[in-house]
Amino acid sequence: MNSGKTLFSQLMSNGKLHDVNVLDLLVLEAGAIYVMDWGYVDFSRLHVMHRAGSFFVTRAKSNMDFHRVYSAPTDRIAGIVCDQTIALDGQYSAKDYPDHLRRVRFKDPETDKTLIFLTNQFTFPASTICSLYKQRWQVELFFKWIKQHLRIKRFLGNSENAVKTQIWIAVSVYVLVAIVKKRLDLDASLYTLLQIFSLTLFEKMPIQQAFLGHRHNSELDETSNQLNLFGY
Q1: How far is the C-alpha of 127 from the C-alpha of 57, rounded, in Å?
Q2: Chain centre to alpha carbon of residue 51
Q3: Does the global pTM surpass 0.85?
Q4: Which residue, of 32, 64, 82, 135, has the fewest CB within 10 Å?
Q5: How many domains in the chain?
Q6: Mean pLDDT of all residues in 30-53
Q7: Is 130 strand, coil or helix?
């Protein structure tokens, strides 16, 4: 098996690689469970994972052509609407994935939203299949948090070192701002603080003054508060 560093390097791209093609780069591990969104539904690739002894949990597309082979008992109180063994009927999909699949229909009691999951894992309870996908969503929320709070709009480099360096710098800045907020007992949120600091990065002023809508005079004269980067 490849090391984590080698695998990371293999999965790096120029940003133009389609999501589903990443499945071709994975070093599949027997017994591992790969959880993914429906953008990765490619039955030929999923069958490669199945033959490798790996498991997957994904979302089923609405236009999937199939027929039911068997229906297992369900717990509707837990939101499990159906737990089916199915076979694909599409001309190409049936050829790409000739084995049976498991289809779990779940209605979230909290949001009242219905989700349909597709997996080759037949041993776990249906509720566990749903929980696995829910954990994948936590990863999505984490990356959303990174984009919103660490202010990383794009990566400046494609190497492992470049990506890690940029993330750790952003985390360090975020922690420093959090320390400033706590020590000065500022009411503004961390998100607001980061926005203000990004606009007043090279201005010298009492930090409280930055929240009063102070406008900086752009003309550089003797009274200017613009920081001189080369003044020692």
Answers
A1: 12
A2: 27
A3: no
A4: 135
A5: 2
A6: 92
A7: helix
